[in-house]
């Protein structure tokens, strides 16, 4: 039986400003935390941007966005997820007045999307806190960032209220647990960061996110504002009840972030965690009321599932996502385990928990692509492995819809090749569109349609009917 997607399903793709725009100091832009992380999330931080950082040029989307949006329109995109670089609007983050040239760039970008009938889905803060806020204030550890973020969100909601309907407050907000500098702009080295400061920073982000929902609805009542979490379903490695509890506690770490956004208060299991770790969150009297401004929908990324166990002998210290490997799953070129059914599982878990609309805003396969000349003389990539990956995951989205889950849309990650967040490489490619740029900085930046480009175009045209079960 064919997979049935609802009428009006928002098909599209996703990128992040810091991974594609480049132009890192053009038109008044300030430095962000990404500009000093040339090796990705696990690499060293530099004092100033260095030429080895591929993100400083990205794929030059800042100058080529019209060409790229036209290609997205050719695929039939209904929605395009991107982010606003905070340091384009407020270069240091704590100015009183915004940078007009930065605001104008996003005016032009959103106008170009809407010219083709593509709805922008905009992430307000996507892993690029202004560097000044990180160095001077220690990022989100400092409560002052709530005010700076409030000024920023009020500025962009007012400016783009007639152009943007769909918003996300923070990208993969729960990633701050593992990557406090990238996710929270926290300048204190991870190994020195106390749990007290980490969870204080998280509280500040929660308040800021709820304020954004409140402000956004006041300025644009029809706006749909969601949170965005990194979803990572966690299975017990064995039926041993101790492994089941270990998996539950690992899931709690991620559910915590969606729980506060969707329910408007701290769950009991986190209050227990705070007591047992002597964490005392400092709050202001108004915080509890602010948190009640809950999101309209839950959005999430999905790449992998993991297993948990109390058996330390099964654990590998180099595991990027924590947990332990699942012996039943294959892995990608970068060691990420591939689990399409996990996407159906997490969609059901989120919907059962919150009864709010869900949006899959990141999912994709990072792989090494080879640009070749096809029989008709065109340069392309025969990426059947990517087609299979996306097909199998989208079939599971369809299964979740049959289960009764309300799914708003799907935006494949890295719909055009860009610089990887985790490794800062170009060779880890996700896109339907190949960009001629390499890890050694060589390449023409020309764009080429991959085989998956035409496959995804057919998926959108048929509203999922062309998927292969």
From TrEMBL:
<dbReference type="InterPro" id="IPR017853">
    <property type="entry name" value="GH"/>
</dbReference>
<keyword id="KW-0326">Glycosidase</keyword>
<dbReference type="InterPro" id="IPR033132">
    <property type="entry name" value="GH_1_N_CS"/>
</dbReference>
<dbReference type="GO" id="GO:0005829">
    <property type="term" value="C:cytosol"/>
</dbReference>
<keyword id="KW-0378">Hydrolase</keyword>
<protein>
    <recommendedName>
        <fullName>Amygdalase</fullName>
    </recommendedName>
</protein>
<dbReference type="Pfam" id="PF00232">
    <property type="entry name" value="Glyco_hydro_1"/>
</dbReference>
<dbReference type="InterPro" id="IPR001360">
    <property type="entry name" value="Glyco_hydro_1"/>
</dbReference>
<feature type="active site" description="Nucleophile">
    <location>
        <position position="362"/>
    </location>
</feature>
<dbReference type="GO" id="GO:0016052">
    <property type="term" value="P:carbohydrate catabolic process"/>
</dbReference>
<dbReference type="GO" id="GO:0008422">
    <property type="term" value="F:beta-glucosidase activity"/>
</dbReference>
<dbReference type="InterPro" id="IPR018120">
    <property type="entry name" value="Glyco_hydro_1_AS"/>
</dbReference>
<comment type="similarity">
    <text>Belongs to the glycosyl hydrolase 1 family.</text>
</comment>
């Amino acid at each position: 039986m064919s997979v049935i997607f609802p009428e009006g399903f928002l098909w599209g793709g996703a990128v992040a400003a810091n991974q594609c725009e480049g132009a890192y100091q053009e038109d008044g832009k300030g430095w962000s935390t990404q500009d000093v992380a040339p090796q990705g999330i696990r690499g060293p931080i530099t004092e100033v941007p260095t030429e080895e950082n591929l993100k400083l040029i990205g794929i030059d989307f800042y100058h080529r966005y019209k060409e790229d949006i036209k290609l997205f329109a050719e695929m039939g995109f209904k929605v395009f997820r991107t982010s606003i670089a905070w340091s384009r609007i407020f270069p240091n983050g704590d100015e009183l007045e915004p940078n007009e040239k930065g605001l104008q760039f996003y005016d032009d970008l959103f106008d170009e999307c809407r010219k083709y009938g593509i709805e922008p889905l905009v992430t307000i803060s996507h892993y690029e806190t202004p560097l000044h806020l990180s160095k001077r204030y220690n990022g989100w550890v400092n409560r002052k960032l709530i005010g700076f973020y409030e000024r920023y969100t009020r500025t962009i909601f007012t400016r783009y209220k007639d152009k943007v309907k769909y918003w996300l407050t923070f990208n993969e907000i729960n990633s701050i647990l593992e990557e406090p500098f990238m996710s929270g702009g926290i300048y204190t080295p991870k190994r020195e960061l106390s749990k007290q400061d980490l969870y204080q920073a998280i509280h500040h982000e929660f308040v800021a996110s709820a304020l954004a929902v409140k402000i956004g609805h006041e300025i644009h009542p029809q706006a749909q504002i969601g949170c965005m979490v990194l979803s990572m379903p966690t299975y017990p490695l064995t039926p041993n009840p101790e492994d089941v509890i270990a998996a539950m506690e690992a899931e709690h770490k991620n559910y915590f972030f969606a729980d506060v956004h969707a329910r408007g208060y701290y769950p009991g299991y986190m209050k227990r965690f705070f007591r047992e770790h002597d964490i005392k969150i400092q709050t202001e009297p108004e915080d509890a009321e602010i948190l009640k401004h809950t999101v309209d929908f839950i959005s999430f990324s999905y790449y992998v599932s993991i297993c948990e166990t109390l058996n330390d002998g099964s654990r590998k210290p180099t595991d990027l996502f924590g947990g332990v490997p699942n012996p039943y799953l294959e892995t990608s070129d970068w060691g990420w385990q591939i689990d399409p059914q996990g996407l159906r599982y997490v969609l059901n878990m989120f919907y059962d928990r919150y009864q709010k609309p869900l949006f899959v805003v990141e999912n994709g396969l990072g792989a090494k692509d080879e640009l070749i000349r096809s029989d008709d003389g065109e340069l392309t990539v025969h990426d059947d492995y990517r087609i299979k990956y996306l097909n199998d995951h989208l079939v599971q989205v369809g299964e979740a819809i049959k289960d009764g889950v309300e799914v708003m849309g799907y935006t494949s990650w890295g719909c055009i090749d860009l610089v990887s967040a985790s490794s800062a490489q170009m060779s880890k490619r996700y896109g339907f569109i190949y960009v001629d740029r390499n890890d050694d900085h060589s390449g023409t930046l020309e764009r080429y349609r991959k085989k998956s480009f035409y496959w995804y175009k057919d998926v959108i045209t048929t509203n999922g009917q062309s998927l292969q079960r």
